[in-house]
């Protein structure tokens, strides 16, 4: 997480201030619950809320206590006692530090997930808008980087829309994975705290109780969360690479928006480089890489060890902040993408009609030519075109073995671009629903 | 995927014979669908089924054709024509190789997922059985590898049960991710094939149609699938490491079953090593590692490139076969695990009562002592015990500052082991449901 | 490791036959060394060599013994005793299984490294040959996929040559890392075996003694080995992606060789797809992924645990066989690469001279124009060219602010292509040495 | 990189101030070199040094320029012109931004490597000191977590010393990998800048010229650098896990130093947790994970794309700062490690002599018993001991089949602990050299 690739709302989730605020809420809700079941005085719980609700927790003060105690939650509780007064002794009764830490982490991840889901929604909006705008803009479909058959630019964006719809569903599932709360004490047995406290705090914090915690909330949940972020990042990479390809000098079918005053290169002022999508490509590598330490975090020793903690202090912010930034950047790229239909048409026309060879092949077989013969006929007319020695349509019409099977009109029909787009509506309906 | 770590049912999914059989079914169903909408003769479709239904596809023959054509699907279709006769020219009409390859891969992954889900079910059964058997077997809970407070051995297994229940749900979701079918032609536009063919084949093969395919089914689906396998593997690693810890010479609370005739070591015949769970630990590393190339496969160029193919030829079998083997091995380990309650009790007693310190701390604060003072009192009696200079209960009773707050009976109550287990029922009900 | 992506020499290293042969050599050399220091009878050592030197070890027989003992080395020794007779009891004296297994693995990795180094040498030869052939073939240099300034195709290949020269040196270092031998007994103390035996076996097997082994040879060595393979694979990916880019329809500056009879696509017979380099791209992902479990293998417990073993049974063959195949495939691609200088020139000319803008910028500043002004002048003439509204040279000559600083001749000089290649010799000399 | 896990010297390398200072040095040295070969006025170069040598570069000012130009090097050069005056137009002549950026990154990585090498040296010192202190402290060697045969605690540390000696050599090689400089212009052809400038700047910055750069320095170098850091981290993990094991309650052979005032747990005041080594375990996961995006960075498009940049802005600091912190933390752990020889002896004695079974086995075979029989004899006496039904020595002496082969004295000799340590000197000499 570095400022250059951060946005404030996501960054704020991970500030010490946010963390201490969440800690306070967990502790205060737990104290209220303890009061409700008669373990601590109701007045004490009220006092905690009264003094703490609008308090500012002094990060520097807490840090200085932690420097001595080497224990962050004790440092916080010590500071809380300074704010609340003697009633503070009823706070944290029967709880263990991880009850606070793990529940807090999950609150932060839930909030991060909410932002990421909103980010994907914004990206989906942009994709849908541009997909509909270019629903029928012809462009060449490419496999292996080689011209294949025509598609529309809208179809490319519809594919991305479908992919990010899946990513949205995955993020919702990932959010669910980590939306749990543990207030279960030293080794998760509720020895010193009633399970009703956990249920109460969970409800208040928008979480559900963790069925079995063992001081910690099990890390398979978090691994699934971060792996999901890695998948979303991989989809971003796919879209980024598509745009980078389209912006290549020789292709130039689309371009990232280039703002006034922006300089592409100190050396080559004419250059307009796809730096945003290249940047997203790199960010995707980072987000993906965080899935691994998250998976290695699962196998904690016995009821817990603390090896996961340093990992999460790093990837918690790093993965969510970076993915948030990359999603937002991609949304901007899509919204403002410069699309060049004329260039798309020029590229489409480039191969002298060879992109229709599959259709010719099919027409030949449907006219009774064997698959092997049809293939041979198409290939012998295609190769000269490929070498720049003629136009596919003309050559086919001049090939007597071809004209034995197909009339000139039938051959010409194979070169009708619109033919390829007759099911675009079907696909759009699958993706966006019927209008 | 190596024989040593393979089981036959999963391995069979990936055999050439299975693959060609699935290819045949896809092609034959597609031909039937084409016949139903009048594109090819009904009789041709019938002939394909008639000749192919019980045919044995000659792997060596197909390989030898591929050696010339360097194209696997063409090689198969050529061989199919040898079996079916001239009607074979109606097969594969308007389709592209990837329609067959990608749909086949998903069929294989779905079948693999079904086996993995069954594997997890078997493991869940074993965990549940052993959890109930040891529901109230006391053992020490450990954080950081250090004795914390008592838990039961059943709770440890209930945690694993809850974790693998989540993994089951994740596998079901992962299966859903890749249960799609594409019969959409060269670049996914259905230019030469009606979308109804895809719908028909999907239904027959137990899949749903891919909303937008682009010659290939998008690889974010597969990435999610393999990432999920990595999570399941990480959970296996956690359970494996737990057992390895429990089998340590100094701990010896449980042991892998040791069969007659088995030799632990050529050099140290008394040794009984947790080799199965160590093996699972290594296998987990492998399954986890496959998530990465799967994620890198997402960003194919434009409508497709074929870089994903070599990756999937390797990790398709490797990840599913290895995880299947590891899950089955773990189920055997759990079913036959030798559990030593007496050793658990011995370890529990090892610290002279220090594991009850948290309870004493709580009793002191509940009796009105400040948190700081209570901490100090517990600590000054705990440290001598830790150094082997006395018993915690005796020392506390002799500490006048302690006895000012608590009666001897109140102190003794803090040492009641059963106290810790009063919510085991609650937790079991959360995990296994009310009896 | 799958047959499709395997070559026989590398595969043979990992066969059971090779493994048992190496085991025999280790055991027999150790017995000879034991005889030399008087621990076992000289005659026994001679007998071992006599009976075993040309023996065929029966893999099926050893497997069937292992099925009972569940221990591979004991199974082998049992079978060896069947071959050697009673003198076999002097074999393996004071040794532990890992002495055999770990030393054998390193012998296999050393042999694999030798093949990989030879593979890189072959690739270097191909790169050098083609680099010299195209030393002065002009082509456009691209940054961000956008035309930048002219380079030569030979320079591209020289870069690859330099990169693979580094990879060769890394492989030599990686080979050195794992070229060690351990014959140090149960926990590496030489309690029951003299260190001279290790020295003898090491020398005979072409290894050096491991300074401190602890039953096992430390796995940081293997991690470094496999990480190095991951780097080599990443360089292959870079070169593969370069070729895939050059073969794009719109670029078509180079093409993979396309053999007679090969079919690019069942649907589009004109297509010639860069399937070899796409395949290498995927294989690179796999080889890279193996670095991770290798790194996770380092942290074995205490003197050893066996979690590394399953990982190495998989990645030992998988990583080396796959990289060997990918290197050899790339060598073939480079040797037979179809290079199209005319297309390179056509692409170079595509931007109406804009690729010379940097030189114009420099000429302006050298003529006393400020950097900011020069940038502005170049930019205002470049933008119309970019939009297809004129030729850069013509526009510059017509810009009076430009011509105030530069004469027409000075402007024309900026468009001299040869100017860019004056240091090609320098770079070639750095890479290939002076002629 | 987060403050909690950072040390100031390493962090300073990555500050904007350091970066701009290095940029200045590169630009100023290049200007001097240009002056020496007569391309720019000598006075201009002098002015650059005069004004810039002690200048403070205004980070906020540069940021605000970059906000408009969206180009960091142009922003810096603009600010530099504000400092230097009109002579600034001679700066950066014929160079491209990457000449500055890439050379700067390598300077930073070289400085980081120097700190890491010094860190490893400090760790080696600590390991050597403690290894010699405990050269002859007996402790049990464990394989699979199970008692094997005796080793000394010094041997464990000597192993770590040998491993980190290798890591030191790897870091030196990794430093060499990235100690290169590129001043080669837009696409690396030196079209507008003489190669002598690169040679001059390289020499002044302590680097060597990159043989072929292509605007960027090739990223296989950086991949190797970060992969090496991942290996070092994996070794740290191994040592951390060893200490965590030794500190387990049931083992307690060593303990992290526990400072006054430190609180292990808010709930269990007696607990002394190995939190430093657990923390290092987590940090190792992070450093290891950075190797992957570094490897993915290798395959830049053509002469360069900028996808590597965001990755390096993150992992450059993250990997080096985290590893520096982890190494230093480990050095502190080793220096102050509390070692408990009495507990080691107690654990050694725990198995009633079974750890000597291998020696008994050997004595039996040397006395003429067949390997199979000897194994059986040892096993039948070992199993009762394992079940707590007797002492190994006593049982062996009472086994008539054993006493047929060995005298009581010979049996007793097998139980001599010192026997295992006779080659400790040999091993220490291998690792630390002869005294």
Structure, described:
4 copies of one chain form a homotetramer. Chain A contains 19 helices and 6 strands. Chain A has 435 residues and is mainly alpha-helical. Chain A has helices spanning 8-13, 16-36, 42-52, 59-69, 72-84, 97-133, 153-178, 195-205, 220-247, 275-289, 291-296, 307-336, 341-349, 357-366, 371-386, 392-397, 400-405, 408-413, 424-432, and strands spanning 138-143, 146-152, 180-181, 208-209, 254-255, 338-339. Chain A is elongated and about 100 Å long. In chain A, strands 1-2 form a two-stranded antiparallel sheet. Chain A has a two-stranded parallel sheet with strand order 3-4. Chain A has a two-stranded antiparallel sheet with strand order 5-6. Chain A has 3 domains: 1-93, Fumarase/aspartase (N-terminal domain) (Fumarase C, Chain B, domain 1); 96-345, Fumarase C, Chain A, domain 2 (Up-down Bundle), CATH 1.20.200.10; 354-414, Fumarase/aspartase (C-terminal domain) (Ribonucleotide Reductase Protein R1, domain 1, Orthogonal Bundle). Chains C and D meet through strand 1, strand 2, helix 7, helix 9 and helix 11 of C and strand 1, strand 2, helix 7, helix 9 and helix 11 of D. Chains A, B, C, D: Belongs to the lyase 1 family. Adenylosuccinate lyase subfamily. Chains A, B, C, D: Residues 352-432 form the Adenylosuccinate lyase C-terminal domain.
């Amino acid at each position: 997480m570095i400022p250059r690739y951060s946005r404030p709302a996501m960054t704020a989730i991970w500030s010490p201030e946010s963390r201490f605020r969440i800690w306070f809420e967990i502790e205060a809700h737990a104290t209220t619950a303890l009061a409700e079941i008669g373990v601590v005085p109701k007045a004490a719980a009220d006092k905690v809320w009264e003094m703490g609700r609008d308090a500012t927790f002094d990060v520097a003060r807490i840090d200085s206590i932690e420097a001595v105690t080497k224990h962050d939650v004790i440092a916080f509780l010590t500071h809380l006692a300074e704010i609340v007064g003697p009633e503070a002794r009823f706070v944290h009764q029967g709880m263990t530090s991880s009850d606070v830490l793990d529940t807090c982490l999950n609150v932060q991840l839930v909030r991060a997930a909410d932002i990421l889901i909103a980010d994907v929604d914004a990206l989906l909006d942009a994709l849908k808008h541009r997909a509909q705008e270019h629903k029928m803009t012809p462009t060449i479909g490419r496999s292996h980087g080689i011209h294949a058959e025509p598609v529309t630019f809208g179809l490319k964006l519809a594919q991305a829309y479908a992919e990010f719809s899946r990513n949205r569903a995955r993020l919702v599932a990932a959010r669910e994975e980590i939306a749990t709360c543990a207030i279960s004490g030293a080794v998760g047995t509720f020895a010193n705290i009633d399970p009703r406290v956990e249920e109460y705090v969970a409800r208040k914090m928008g979480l559900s109780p963790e069925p079995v915690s063992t001081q910690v909330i099990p890390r398979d949940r978090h691994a699934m969360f971060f792996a999901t972020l890695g998948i979303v990042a991989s989809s971003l990479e796919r879209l980024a690479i598509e745009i980078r390809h389209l912006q290549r000098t020789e292709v130039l079918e689309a371009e990232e928006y280039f703002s006034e005053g922006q300089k592409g290169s100190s050396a080559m002022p004419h250059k307009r480089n796809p730096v945003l999508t290249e940047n997203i490509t790199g960010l995707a590598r980072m987000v993906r890489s965080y899935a691994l330490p998250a998976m290695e975090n699962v196998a904690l020793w016995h009821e817990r060890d603390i090896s996961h903690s340093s990992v999460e202090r790093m990837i918690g912010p790093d993965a969510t902040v970076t993915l948030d930034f990359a999603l937002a950047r991609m949304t901007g790229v899509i919204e403002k993408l410069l699309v060049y239909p004329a260039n798309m048409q020029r590229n489409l026309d480039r191969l002298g009609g060879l992109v229709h060879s599959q259709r010719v092949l099919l027409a030949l077989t449907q006219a009774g030519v064997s698959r092997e013969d049809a293939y041979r006929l198409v290939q012998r007319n295609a190769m000269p075109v490929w070498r720049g020695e003629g136009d596919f349509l003309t050559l086919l019409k001049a090939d007597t073995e071809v004209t034995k099977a197909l009339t000139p009109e039938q051959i010409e029909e194979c070169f009708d671009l619109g033919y390829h787009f007759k099911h675009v509506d079907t696909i759009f309906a699958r993706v966006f629903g019927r209008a």
